[in-house]
Write a structure and sequence with these properties.
The structure is a single chain. By secondary structure, the chain is mainly beta. The chain has 1 helix and 11 strands. The strands form 3 sheets. The protein has a 4-stranded antiparallel beta sheet.
């Protein structure tokens, strides 16, 4: 996965759009960062940190709808838009901007917060 620099973020091509199935999350690794990708029934692509901040659960295995996903270990629900846990202010997960171009899924990772994590 190659990354291109844009200001303070890096853009990574993750996979082809056809590699994601609505209703089934997938985990990808970019350097040392695990990313969970989701495709909703409406076709929206979401990218979040691949492990739950509560106890490290595998977020790609989460149940989800258009705006919320639920950690498979303890059923903590999180917002795709904000990364906030909707039942506890103690937990938040990183959310990464995702977009599709030429049937390829790309995500943006801020460099300021992840310099050490990518290598």
């Amino acid at each position: 996965m190659n990354g291109n620099m844009l200001d303070n973020e890096r853009v990574y091509q993750v996979c082809h759009l056809n590699e994601l199935v609505s209703g089934i999350g997938r985990c990808f690794r970019i350097g040392k960062i695990k990313i969970a990708l989701f495709k909703t029934r409406s076709g929206k692509i979401w990218a979040v940190e691949g492990k739950c901040p509560h106890q490290g659960g595998p977020i790609a295995e989460a149940l989800y709808d258009e705006k919320t996903f639920i950690c498979p270990l303890h059923a903590y629900p999180f917002s795709f838009e904000t990364g906030n846990c909707t039942i506890s202010e103690k937990f938040r997960i990183k959310v990464y901007p995702a977009f599709v171009k030429n049937q390829q899924i790309f995500i943006k990772i801020p460099m300021a917060s992840n310099n050490d994590s990518l290598t």
